[in-house]
Amino acid sequence: MMPTIDAALPPNAWLPLLVLASSLLPGLVIFFLAEQRYWTRTLLNLAGSLIKLLLVGAMLWGVFHQQQYAASLPLLPGLDLVLRVRPLSLLFLVLSAGLWLLTTLYAIGYLEDSPNRSRFFGFFSLCVTATVGVAMAGNLLTFLLFFELLTLTTYPLVVHRGSEEARRAGQIYLAHTVIAGALLLAGTVWLYTLTGTLEFTTRGFVAGLVEGHRWSLIAIFVLLIIGVGVKAALVPLHSWLPRAMVAPAPVSALLHAVAVVKAGAFGIVLIVYDVFGVEVAAELGVTKPLALVAAFTILYGSVRALFQDNLKRRLAFSTVSQVSYIVLGVAIVGPLATVGGLVHLVHQGVMKITLFFCAGNLAETLGIHQVSEMDGVGRRMPWTMLAFSIGVFGMIGLPPVAGFISKWYLGLGGLEAGLHWPLFVLAGSSLLNAAYFLPILHRAWFREPPDTWPEERDFGGKKETAWLLLLPPLVTAALSLLIGLFASMPFTPLEWARLIAEREFYQP
Amino acid sequence: MNSVLVFALAGVGLILLGLHALLVQRHLLRKVLAFNVISSGIFLILAGLARRAPGAEPDPVPQAMVLTGIVVAVAATALALAMIQALRTATGRTRLDDDGED
Amino acid sequence: MPMLLSGADWAVALVFVPLLAALACFLVPRAANWLGLLAATLILLAALGLVGGLLSEGPLRVAVGGWGAPLGIDLWADGLSAILLLMTALVGFGVSLYALAYFAGHPRQQRWFWPLWLLLWTALNGLYLAADLFNLYVMLEVLGLSAAALTALSGSATALHAAMRYLLVSLLGSAAYLLGVALLYHGAGTVDIALLGERLEAGAVAYSALLVMATGLLLKTALFPFHFWLPPAHGSAPAPVSALLSALVIKASFYLLLRLWLELFSGLAGPLPALFPELLGLFGVAAVLWGSVQALRQRRLKRLIAYSTVAQIGYLFLAFPLAGALSNADSMMANGAWQAVLYLALAHGLAKAAMFLSAGSLLRFAGHDRIADLDRAVQRLPLTLTAFVLGGVSIMGLPPSGGFIGKWLLLEAAFSQGRWGLALVVLVGGVLAAGYVFKVVGYAFTPTEIAQEGAAVPLGMQWSALLLAFGAILLGFAAPWLWPLLEVGAAP
After folding, report:
1. Cβ–Cβ of B51/C186 closer than 8 Å?
2. Domain containing residue B27
3. Any bridge partners for residue C370, and if so which?
4. Residue B49 belongs to a domain with what CATH number?
5. ipTM, 2 decimals?
6. What domain count does chain B have?
7. Residues 179-238 of C with CB under 8 A from B
8. Nearest CA among C422, A205, B76 for reference residue B84
């Protein structure tokens, strides 16, 4: 039968499509704008991100009230492209939409007078489109499509500067992500030939196959996890991430807090919960090795961070370490650990982006790229360093910043599952975090500033820096505090994570 | 030995001779001649083996095909000769170089 | 769906419009440009009309001149031929648009391009519509001759060498094919494909015909190890010609091999029909790996794209061992491996044409096609780079694109039959393709030491490449619309 496109899409199909369109359309238009059309571009960017945030908010309200939002398009015989907004999707969606708005503001400030801004913002918007597509994916095929699209749209951002170093960083990035994509595709097709479906289902859809296809399922699990694990920077697949720091700060912020790394972690969550089902995965014996890999990554990332003098590289290794908290939470089979892992998806995003915004401010305003150049910078840029300090406290896990909540739940989750070693890993990681972050704070606040900064830019009189550069980190730092302080109020990430864990573990 | 076998063997022989020459001879004109020999061998097989049923009269359809084939071969030879001429004008040689990276 | 003209009329138009246009362009060179464009438009309409006719009337058979088989020439169209005709029409249209701008200012080349290209198009359409083996031979020969002549169009020594080699290979290939026709006629008394399908029996005649015809067609399709002529030919022809060669001409001999296999040989008893697809699969593996590795080593853009074609052809042949033995074309619908082949062939046609056309634009801009010296082409020729990347996305098999659909179907067939080796080759090929596509893209971002001035590139060239690339991407969403067309596939 010839397929028909329903002229009247059901109302609940419009919202997901509009969310995609809200960044896709501005992005496409921006590509064609001349460089000097600053206001048009800014308007499109901001309008798009605001609209997206509003739409996501509307869907949040709807899903809370048990509404269903889904849209689908036939792609292959028997397989559709499906967008489906579930509670888990919203966790990632809200993070992406909110942080995109802030990163857009920041990028506008950061890239002022840089060349090729239209190209940058075009790909920026496409990247976010891919990210929300990943968030709303309703089956593994759709996930795969947007996941690969993410690779394609972030590559031009990594090589944006056009230097030889950027080109090589792009090559390494691609080498990792393309091979990972091939493994992901292999796992997906193989799984499809065994199960005949790829729809994400609570508790997974492979339970019936454990009997006859145990080893195939384990192999598929490994393929899928490596496939998404590269983006999630699991060791030893992580080496693209520090190299990608050559990109401008807004790109690092986006890559590390919102798009690529989170998409990888989100993928691991989906594979364990909605493809295999966490109990099936435990039965297959794959959760233990995954937990060990996560633990190793957590510690390894922190140790490497200790030895980096370049600020962004130190933050990069910190990301490698922190994102594996999510994986740890997933791999420890238990509702509390699940909550810890899921909520850290949001918490880490908000905190890490604060740190990257601040690093960008230091580089843009004073030309500081190395930690050793940061002596006394707290006097010169107090608000930036205040935000930075809040982020640091969150990373270490000090209350009341959000990071504490995640670690608390992860620790409890470990105990609930009868495991003690996660506690040691978490404690060790906190210590290491303190070891590589606190000295920075000490330098910044308590040392004497040098006579001249490496490369100071004047923003007019006594101003610390451009307000476009100052506002976003302050907002995200405040958010990290608020999310932590008011964690048990409704509509916080923690409550939302609890809701998801409940539906995954308790409801039949 | 019946005529079909003679035609078949002769045809195969021509094809093999022509193939050998095509691969071994370096001069382009000889390659084109070799191709013509191969074609002749094929036409011989086509016309000689053509019978609707064994022992019946020769079939005119393959002979029509051979005629078409000859026309095609003539056109092909003409193009090949023109190309050889152009190649000679451009490079002064009538052999194919081994292909290399420029 | 009521049509002004029936499917049969469109089929006839598909053969005669380009033929007459070729003659007209030859006789009136001054009007060649817009005659060519007019013909391209009409052919595209005719192809769409044919597709419409097939969907409403089913497969059709036209006895030209009223004679009928086995003495007359019949035209025959089913789903498979219609899809390839549509691809030829789309790519041909895009390349014609490009050529309008490309040859402006090169009157000698322009004068000969149009008649030769339209003759080529006649041969392609005729080949896809032919119902008997001898008509196929004639079309195949015309195809080879016009393609070789087009390759030599620029008149440079390199081009002439490549064209001469191509011509000799092509002639050898069609000669081998003709030998096979002779053997088959001897064995079954007819050259009509449908009748042959019924009458042919396993035996020395059928086997030797298969071997000889396959060799000839593989030579023309440039499957490893018969690929040696392709990189020089596709690499040194003018850009629109390279696009035609890689996207269209290669597909014709592949189609022929596929058709012969499906209609005549795959259902035969005996060991050869089982071994043959495995052998083709093996060559396909070698082609994918060798072609991709060679592409990575190239320093010139057009050579890189040409080696990419060598690799992509290999994918098409991987379907043979995966498809199993089928004896009629109407099983194509149910067989994932053949669907994959069709998709890959279609997607490659559009994507490779887009890539060659973009390479032509880059060449026009910079005066050279050295990959390492692309000098910020991404900001100076963004449309062209986009076309290249989108085409590359399909070649790599990344979603969303036609190439992805084909790759998925191929992998599905491989995994469900436990052919891990073939699945691995498909995946490795995709990774290597990403390597060579992004090698080019990476250099398009970096500046050269001394900034170079660029020549102007007409918008017509840039947009036609981009349109073809969009086509390759859109193909990724068109699967549900193509299946019904494939279903129209029963042998007449």
Report:
1. yes
2. 3-91
3. C300
4. 1.10.287
5. 0.91
6. 1
7. 179, 181-183, 185-186, 189, 191, 228, 231-232
8. B76
